[in-house]
Amino acid sequence: MNLKNNFKIIFQNKDKQVFDIEYTLNNTVVAEKWFNKIKHLRFVPIDKTESEQVDLSNLKQIYLDFCEFAELEPIEFKQIDQDILNQLHKIYETSHKHVSKQKNNDILYKFHHAVHYHETNDHLQTKINVGWGVKEGLLTESFLCNPYYEPSIKANNIYLAWAELGKRPMDYWKDKEPNSKTRIEQLAKPHITLRAKFFIAQKDIVPKKLEDKFLEWFDPYKKSWLDKYNLSKWDEVDEHSAPLLATTVQKTKLEHCKFVKIVS
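The chain above was modelled as a monomer; its predicted structure follows.
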């Protein structure tokens, strides 16, 4: 098999049966940059948290474990609502710089993923996430990926994951983050980091038009935000789609399957 353009991904289904799907690399600079990273990482074990193969449901305990590791006094809360989630995300942001420098800091990233896990009530799996976390190291690079976003997501194909320290603009709005230009430009992010992290779609997705209420809210901030990131637009494709990395002709259903490894 030609490593330059073709590769296989090994999957495991819910019955522990192993099978493979063959992929062809997409002909874009984003796909090429991604695959160059994969060449270095394909023999490195994936990060279970980054790949969402760990239980994130007990946010309170994960937060307490994080505070113990980071030597922080935990805030008290009885119920998990969006206000609490925003406070916890802020704690993650302000702690990231110094905690990320400590050894065995997996709880930092587990805490972050747990916060986002609780920001949605819909935990039906639509994609298989694959990432290496901090093991990716220096392979991460700054690159504006939005111009490479596809009009829709196709089942079984591979896409580059959005993986910023922040939130997309409509997520920022839905999460009731502050109506502050400073905070928006600090936390609301387009896709400006090209990492090895990717996902395999489990179903077709056509991005829905952005909500009118969001567009009305975003309008006063939009121009300066777009200018900051050298973007010409922000629409449903930017908010809900992703860059295509590789395609397959195989139609195997991937529900309840998990990633095992990449082989050439």
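Strands lie at 6-12, 18-25, 127-130, 141-142, 158-160, 193-194, 198-201, 244-247, 258-263.
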